[in-house]
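Troubleshooting log. The previous structure file for this entry was overwritten by mistake, so regenerating from the original sequence record. Sequence copied from the archived sheet and checked twice against the printout by T.R.
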Amino acid sequence: MVRSSGGRCSIGVRSTPARHGKLLCRARYSAGSDVSQDHQAPFLTALEQARAAAFPAGEYVGQESFMLAGDVRTLAHQARISPGVSVLDLCCGVAGPGRMITAESGCHYLGVDHSARALANARELAGDLPCRFEQAHLPPVPNGRFEVVVLLETMLAFPDKEALVSEVARVLEPGGRFAFTVEEGRPLNQQERTRMPGADTVWLIELAELTGVLRGAGLTVIWQQEYSSSHQAIAMALQRCYRAESSQIAEQIGARATAELITAHRLWSDWLGSGRVRKFAVVAEKQLLSSMKPR
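Regenerated output below.
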């Protein structure tokens, strides 16, 4: 999952409600692990068989999350990613979804992550695809102008969402789209933070507050869809598969990290199933210059 320190994003396996981003596992992926992404190659190798078994056929494309490949395609379609569109993928990790989007849409893709090792893997896996990758802490967002900014399974890891969204809006062209997923709900209480491994990467936000943060940055929600039920099912499937492969995983990452991985997925499954947390995909559009009012 994603790690956050001082508001900066460093993708590791612990922060996703699959990544506690890329936890449901943050690119950005294994909720609850103490392994950072720069040291996660053996960890991901151990997880590969379990992940492949957990996802329905054709729905696993190397994502570090609870998202199905079909979810990613839907979000890309709603964000109007198409041939020649400039796309910035924040906290991309090994860029499974980004590589798929590039291959299928013909967009101009730039993936950004803090982990040099994750980016090296992403470059190797991208092969001849026209993908570019850049190493950076977030925020700030790399300079440039983009028609679409993507943030998959990582919003959770940023405690200061206003600073993040402001940076996204800064690099979006007028009329550009911010396409992201978010875990929605009240902030964790102390008991919940004690139970959740890697709770320092779990910063929930309620939908009304998030909408206000977006609006304050000049972004208007134009599409949203709830995925709580389907992502709860993936969390459960991942938990079962990690349990089945726990001995093999523990040989590579240790018993404690394996136990935390399983615990985190159980909690995410429980919270998504009970409604304590809801999962949304969202597209927000930046106002055109003609419609922007002086602040």
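The CA atoms of residues 52 and 80 lie 29 Å apart. Archived copy saved in two places this time.
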